[in-house]
Amino acid sequence: MGHDLTLVTDEQTITAIRNSILRLNALSKSIQSKHNFDEIEQRWTKNNNDYKGFWRGADIQVIETRNGETIYDWQNREILSHGYSSDQPCPTKFPHLISGILIEISDIVSDILDYQNKYAFYWEIHLTCINLATKNSEAAPAVACATIIYNQVRLLNSWLQRLEQKRNTPNEPTLTELGWRYYFAFGRNVNHDVMLSDSRCPNSIFLGRALLKDYSFALDSKGYATVISNTGSNTIGVLWLVSPNDKLNLDRCEGVGRNPPSYQENTKSIETTDANLFGGPKHVEAFLYVSNRKLGTVPADGYIEQIIDGLSQSLYSAEDIGHYKNYLKSQSPKPPYVSNLKLGEDLSKLLPGPDESKLPLDSSLPFFAYGLFKRDQFGYESIQGFIQWDDDAIVPEACLLERDGLPLLCPIDHPDLVSESEIKEVCKNEIQGGLLTFKEGMQLDAYRVIAETEPFTQYHWGQLNVFNMDKDEQPYLVNCLIARKPEKGTVVLSDQSWSLTADHFFTGVIELAERCSKENLNTIECQAAYLMLWTALERIAALKFSLKAGVMNNVVKLGDENAFSNAVDQFHEKHNGFANLRKVFSNHEISDQKPSKTSYKKTIKYLYTIRSNISHRGKGGFSEDHDMILDCIEITLQTLKNLFLTIGKDNNYSL
After folding, report:
1. DSSP 3-state of 246
2. How far apart are CA 223 and CA 303, in angstroms?
3. Most exposed among 139, 263, 287, 599, judged by the fewest C-beta atoms under 10 Å?
C-alpha cells in the first residue's frame, strides 16, 4: 500500500508508460474544454444502475460525502468493509463523475499495471480525493477531475524517471545499501495514515504483517505502547522500510532525543508474515522502540482505536485484533428492543446481559432460527443435541436483509429504521424459520454455541413474538438475532426464507468453474474460476465452522469433511492418481507439498497453496500449468457440490 516496487525495466514498459501519460493528458484537456461531465458519468451509470455503491477496486472505493463528516467518518463507512478486508475511501461530492473518471483512467493504464503496482497507483487516487475533500471541498467538477488526473500523471512520470535511471545504471545499490532500515511497528505506527503522514515517514514502504516472538504487548504509564519480555508470547505488528530522513523524523516523534528519552531503540529479529510473499526474507533484523516509562493499564484517548484501525488496514483478522479491545473503556451497550409490542406485554424494562458474554438476557426462552441455525443449514448440527422441540414458525411484518453473505432479520419496528425508510416499505412479509426449544438445563450451552458462531458486528440480541405457521395459537416470545444498522450496506431479499443454496453467488461460481473444461477456457480464466471457487469454499467453511476463526483453520477442517474426501477419492479413481499436480512450495512451510490419497488434510493444504501461491499471485498464468489448474478445479468444484448436497432436501439447488 502506498509504494511500487515491481516495475520491470524494459523498453516496452517505458513506452507504455509514456503512452499512458499522453492519453491521460489528452483526457484532462478534453474535460477542461468540453465539460462533458454527463458523458463521463454515463461511463459509470449505464452499467451500474443496480449497484448501491460507486467505483471500487485495488482496495479503494468512491463514496459520496455528507455535510459535517470527517476523515474518521469516511473511513468507518460500512460499505467499505468486505468481510476479511476493507477499502480506503475516495470521498467526493461527485461520486458518479469520479467513478466515470476512474473507469476512463483504468482503461488507459491497464497495460502498465500488475497485481502489485496497481495498489500504489490507486492509493495515490485515494490520497488525492482525501486532500480534495478536506482542503478544497468546494472545488468544481472540472477542478476535481483535473487534480486527480494531474497527480496520476505526476506519479507515472516518477515511475518513468526511475525506470530510465535503472536502465542507465543497472547496478545501482539497494535501498538497504543506501541506509534504509527495517522498522517493526506495534503501536500507533501500524496505522498507515499516521505512519505515512508528512510529520512522520511519508517515504516509508509498507512490507506487510510481522511478528515479534517472546514479547507481549503492553502499555506504559502514559498509555502508549511498549513490549515486555515474555517467553512463548508474541506481539503482532507491521514491518516498514524506512529512509534515513524518515528515521530522523521517527526518532523525534518517539522522543528518543528527549532528556530523559521517552523511548529507546532496540534491534530484534522479526518474523515477516507477508514480505516473503514478494521475494523478501522470512526473518529480518529490525529496529523498534521500547518505552522507558513505567508500565500502565489505561490507554491514551483514541490510541487503541488507531492501532486497531491500522492492524485492520494491514489485513489482520478480527480474531488477531480482538484482545486490543480489552483496553478500550467500557461503554454502555445499546438496550435490546422487543418487536411486535402490540401482540404481547411491554418488555421495555428488560436490559441486556453482560456485553462480554454475547448471550441473550433470558436464556430460558426459545430461539427463532432463520439463518445458519435453521433446520437443514450448516449450523443446525452444532446445536442439535440441545434441542427438545423444533417447530416451523413465522415472524409477521418483517423482512430479510443480506450483508456480507449473511441473512439479517429486520422487523418493521426496528428502532434504527427512519420513517421514510425503503426497508420499512418492504417489511410486510412473514419471515419463515424454526422455533427451537432447548432442553432444560442445556439452554445456556446452546446459546453459547450460537454466540461463538455468529458475528456480533452484524447482529444483536432482541426479543420478539413469533407464531406457528397456521397462526392458530398465541404468539411465543423468543430470543432472536436482529440486524445491526439495517440501513448500512444491506440488500433486501425478496424471499420469505433463507437458504445458503439460494445464493446466486454460489450458482454463478459453479457455472463459471464448469465452463473451464467444457469450453476450454484459457489459463487466466481458469485461474479466476479457481479463485472464485475458493472464495465460495472459504465462505462455506466460515459459516460451517466459525465466522471468527482464521481462514486457514477453517480450510484445514474442510479436509475432515466427507464432502472433500469423497471428491478426492472420486478424482483419484477417475484419473488413476494425481499426475498433473506437481510439487509446490508453501509460503508458510519450508517443505514442498503434493496431494496425498492417504492424507486429506495434506491434500486440502496443497489445493489452498495453489490458490494462494499460483492463482492469487499470478504465478501460474502459463500454459504448462493449465492442466494442473483444471485438476484443482475439478476437485474443489466437486467438494462444493458435495457440501451443497448436505444442506437438506428442501432447497432449490440441483446439480
Report:
1. helix
2. 8
3. 599
Residue 590: helix, strand or coil by DSSP?
coil
For the domain made up of 181-327, give the CATH fold.
Answer: Hypothetical upf0131 protein ytfp (3.10.490)
Residue with cell 524494459: 10
pLDDT at residue 92 in the model: 92
Q: Which is more confidently placed, 511 or 615? A: 511
Cα 469 to chain centroid distance, Å, stands at: 38
pTM above 0.90, yes or no: no
DSSP code string of 179-214: T-EEEEE-SGGGSHHHHTSTTS-TT-EEEEEEEEEE
- Domain residue limits, the chain: 11-168, 181-327, 341-498, 504-645
With a cut of 60, say whether residue 310 has pLDDT above it: yes
d(CA 645, CA 564): 12
Examine domains 181-327 and 341-498 and report if their fold is the same: yes
Scored b (16 or more CB within 10 A) or e, 385-398 reads ebbeebeebbbbbb
Q: pLDDT (tens digit, 9 = 90+) per residue, 422-461?
A: 787 777 678 899 999 999 889 998 998 888 777 777 888 8
pLDDT value for 172: 63
Residue-wise DSSP of 428-451: TEEEEEEEEEEPTTTHHHHHHHHH
Structure confidence at residue 261 (pLDDT): 87
Digit-coded pLDDT (tens) for 577-599: 888 787 765 444 434 567 777 78
Among the listed residues 289, 283, 287, 250, the one whose alpha carbon sits nearest the alpha carbon of residue 268? 287
Element (H, E) at 235: strand 225-242
Task: State how far the alpha carbon of 322 is from the alpha carbons of 88, 318, 319, in Å.
Answer: 21, 6, 5
Q: Does domain 341-498 have CATH number 3.10.490.10?
A: yes
User: Hunting for cell 445491526 — which residue is that?
Assistant: 484
Q: Is 469 helix (H, G, I), strand (E, B) or coil?
A: coil
